[in-house]
Design brief:
The chain is an alpha+beta fold. It folds into 3 domains: 100 residues, Rossmann fold (3-Layer(aba) Sandwich), CATH 3.40.50.20; 111 residues, ATP-grasp fold, B domain (D-amino Acid Aminotransferase, Chain A, domain 1), CATH 3.30.470; 63 residues, Dna Ligase, domain 1 (2-Layer Sandwich), CATH 3.30.1490. It has 9 helices and 16 strands. The strands form 4 sheets. Strands 14-13-12-15-16 form a 5-stranded antiparallel sheet, with helices on both faces. It has a 4-stranded parallel sheet with strand order 2-1-6-7, sandwiched between helices. Helix 1 packs across helix 9. The protein is globular.
């Protein structure tokens, strides 16, 4: 098969591993810089050009779309879908997962366990917003934040009010969530491929740090998840429409709570913590599922 990887940096661990895994199984692999793709939206024959030549003959693409280029990246994936190329994660699913507020609303509709979350626009509503999520301490998140950036823990109601007012003054979108103290600064990253959790790790925040992101100095170790956590991870990926997803879960006194669903999960931390060949499992998924014109949405939405 000819498989394209939409990635801006061929040296990234995840990109390199996918190339290695594909070549080991006899496939032709090509890394494609998403922002160098340009598109012809002709009705009869949609096409994508790349560095002066037409991209053709691909059986599948693996989108590794960074958050900062979601709009353009989703357009490129959608163009591949219009051309009948199988995409591991479809454009509609990627944009669903990238919109944190929309993704939480979709998860809530499916009955998934979530931290109590509030969203408001007017500064006049801040006191009730804080009470709505159970008061302080609480977590304040930028909707556009990634890798723990733009996430603040407010220990008191006054601190929460001040931080929310500051964010609103900058005209950025935020949401507030209850703080799950019993999680102890740890979360669980489940890697879902197809309808299966293929690897799971516990991420623990650095001392004094409530964020567990590895980019923030957190540590990772293999963990055995419960059946409820497994169902939550698979259900969350399914709700987004993602075939490959990193689902972040908190352990709370009232069961697993889904924090976030990532459409381009990093493979480095979880492969190294668990010893699982996640990249190889993604290639195997493509081998099973990739058929011409199999995209469910066909570029719609």
């Amino acid at each position: 098969m000819k498989i394209g990887i939409l990635s801006r940096n061929p040296r990234l661990y995840s990109t390199r591993r996918l190339v290695e895994a594909g070549k080991e199984r006899g496939h032709e692999m090509q890394v494609i810089d998403t922002l160098r793709c340009y598109m012809n939206m002709a009705t009869a024959r949609p096409s994508i050009h790349y560095k002066g030549a037409e991209l053709a003959g691909f059986d599948a693409v693996i989108p590794r779309i960074g958050a900062s280029i979601t709009f353009y990246g989703a357009a490129v994936v959608r163009q591949f879908e219009m051309m009948g190329v199988f995409s591991v994660n479809e454009s509609v699913a990627i944009t669903r997962a990238r919109d944190k507020l929309r993704s939480l609303q979709l998860l809530a509709r499916k009955g998934m366990g979530l931290p109590v979350t509030g969203f408001a626009h007017s500064p006049d509503d801040i006191p009730d917003l804080i009470d709505m999520v159970g008061g302080a301490p609480l977590v304040i998140k930028l909707l556009e934040g990634t890798q723990g950036i733009g996430v603040v823990l407010a220990e008191t109601k006054q601190a929460a009010k001040s931080v929310i007012e500051a964010f609103m003054g900058l005209n950025v979108n935020i949401m507030v969530q209850e703080f799950i103290r019993e999680a102890g600064g740890a979360d669980i990253r489940c890697l879902v491929v197809g309808e299966k959790v293929v690897a799971a790790m516990k991420r623990q925040g650095a001392p004094g740090e409530f964020r567990s992101n590895l980019h923030r100095g957190g540590s990772a170790e293999v963990i055995k998840i419960t059946s409820a956590e497994r169902r939550s991870a698979i259900g969350a990926a399914r709700a987004m429409g993602l075939n490959v997803a990193g689902v972040d879960i908190l352990r709370s006194n009232h069961g697993p709570l889904v924090l976030e669903v990532n459409s381009s999960p990093g493979l480095g931390g979880i492969e190294q913590a668990t010893g699982q060949d996640v990249a190889g499992m993604i290639i195997e998924f493509i081998e099973r599922e990739a058929k011409p014109n199999r995209t469910k949405t066909r570029g719609q939405g």
